[in-house]
Amino acid sequence: MENLWPNDLLAEMPGSIPNAIETILEIQALGLGTITGGLVVGRVRDRSFPPNRAWSLYIEPVDQPSKAYEFLIIRSVDGGYPVAVEAYHLGDARLKRCESKATLTKALQKIFADLSSKSVITTLAEEAMAAGAVIRPQGEIQVQLARPIEIGPLFDTPDGQVSSISMFGISGHISDTTLENLRDRHRRVVEPLNDRFVVTMPFVGTVKTTVSKEELDVLVAQAKQSLKGY
């Protein structure tokens, strides 16, 4: 299996890459699905206990969340550097200290290039194929079923104007400011990632998800409708 952390993965992002540790880990999680032909997918879970911060990268065979495996965890005292990276499957070499974004990305490259890492991911890919998943060539265009997205009209609350939102099985409320940022595709809310977009919206805590261009169009259109009152 090829290197699961390509040297140019971050370089493909337009402009400067945020130093946020969570963002770097999410980019890796998204890249994993592309590199494995969609057989293995990754997701990042915030496991922070303030003031300490921690993010875990879980990987799983596609469409089999019950088989999720905690691949590694990154810990920080206050959300910045230095950080400790722990990859449980690497035995004596499982713990690494990283002083900066550069050393973190190098550590991730080494972890994903390790034979033990490739073995774990290969096993999950085989489980996906055993369940009927089919590997997709890189660059292959997929037609995906639309995922449900709904944003309601704005209404007044003691804390200001908010709107109800339901997307991908998650429901909550978002402010008019967030809607305006979404409508304008502001970089605080919408970040490009190759041919997709990472959308960050604070509701029920901060929810970050990756959407297709078509799904982003739906979100933007409904944000415009909500701001107009319908």
Ordered list of secondary-structure elements with their pairings:
Blueprint: H1 21-35, E1 40-46, E2 53-61, E3 69-76, E4 83-86, E5 95-98, H2 101-113, H3 115-130, E6 149-157, E7 160-167, E8 170-175, H4 176-183, E9 190-193, E10 196-202, E11 206-211, H5 213-228
Antiparallel strand pairs: 1-2, 2-3, 3-4, 4-5, 6-7, 7-8, 9-10, 10-11
Would you give an account of this structure?
The protein has five helices and eleven strands; from the N terminus they run αβββββααβββαβββα. Helix 4 crosses helix 5 (213-228). The longest helix is centred in the middle third of the chain and has 16 residues, at 115-130. Strand 3 and strand 4 form a beta hairpin. Helix content is 30%, strand content 31%. It is of the alpha+beta class and 230 residues long.
Number of strands: 11
User: Roughly what percent helix?
Assistant: 25-40%
Query: Helices and strands: which structural class?
Result: alpha+beta
Number of helices, counting only DSSP H or I runs of 4 residues or more: 5
Compute the average pLDDT.
79
Secondary-structure element order, as H and E? HEEEEEHHEEEHEEEH
